[in-house]
Amino acid sequence: MNNRSISMVGLSDNQLMELVAESDRAAFTELYSRWAGRIRYFFLRLYSFNGYMADDRTQDTFLKVLEKASGFDNTQRFSPWLYSIAYNLFKNDLRRQQLENTFRNSIKNVSAGEMPQTERLFDLKQSTEFINKALDILGDETKTIFVLRHAEELSIPEIARITGLPEGTVKSRLFYAMKKLSENLQTHQLSEWI
């Protein structure tokens, strides 16, 4: 490790972003090494552990960081800004998927009664697998809020900024998520994971 790399390690995320805005590669490399793993895991959860999608969206997130570096508000924390970028990429994918599904369904002209049942029984081999599958019942937006709060440990106001939802809505979705999870996981302890 050279002296330039060592000096980057001691800088805050916001200080690194100032340097990234000035096209400093070492600063970007340091930010990437700090955050890429967490962002990838965030995407793994959202994309039901699809590694390809998680890798792809992690790269897209950091490309956006480079593109938007000059617009970063240095008075705010870096992590909510970064998660906002990641969440917006995820929302774009959901919109695209919904449009594709609508198009496919209109072509097939399939009635709702003919649609295959999507419910599956959970495999209880590993508790983390079970919890991740259980999170899928929440719906994408509620699942994202739950993950940001309990896995990424962001505050309610930070989650509200990331998702663009009022704080009250974030709180009610968290309450709904906990209620729904407790109904479906009555025989299992969530306390270790959250």
Keywords:
single chain; 194 residues; mainly alpha; Rna Polymerase Sigma Factor, Chain: A; 9 helices; globular; disordered C terminus
Characterization of the model:
It is a single chain. The protein is mostly helical and 194 residues long. It has a single domain (3-107, 122-184), classed as Orthogonal Bundle (Rna Polymerase Sigma Factor, Chain: A), CATH 1.10.1740.10. It has helices spanning 3-9, 13-21, 25-46, 51-68, 78-108, 127-135, 140-151, 156-163, 167-184. Helix 7 (140-151) crosses helix 9 (167-184). The longest helix is centred in the middle third of the chain and has 31 residues, at 78-108. The two termini are 36 Å apart. The model is unreliable at 110-126 and 187-194 (pLDDT under 50).
Summarize the structure.
With 194 residues, the chain is mainly α. The protein contains nine helices and no strands.
Shape: globular
CATH class: Mainly Alpha
- What's the order of the H and E elements? HHHHHHHHH
Strand percentage, roughly? under 5%
CATH level 4 superfamily: RNA polymerase sigma factor, region 2, helix turn helix motif
The CATH topology is given as Rna Polymerase Sigma Factor, Chain: A
Range of helix content? 55-70%
Q: Helical segment tally?
A: 9
End-to-end span in angstroms? 36 Å
Largest sheet, if any?
none
Number of strands: 0
Backbone CA Rg = 19 Å
Low-confidence parts: 110-126, 187-194
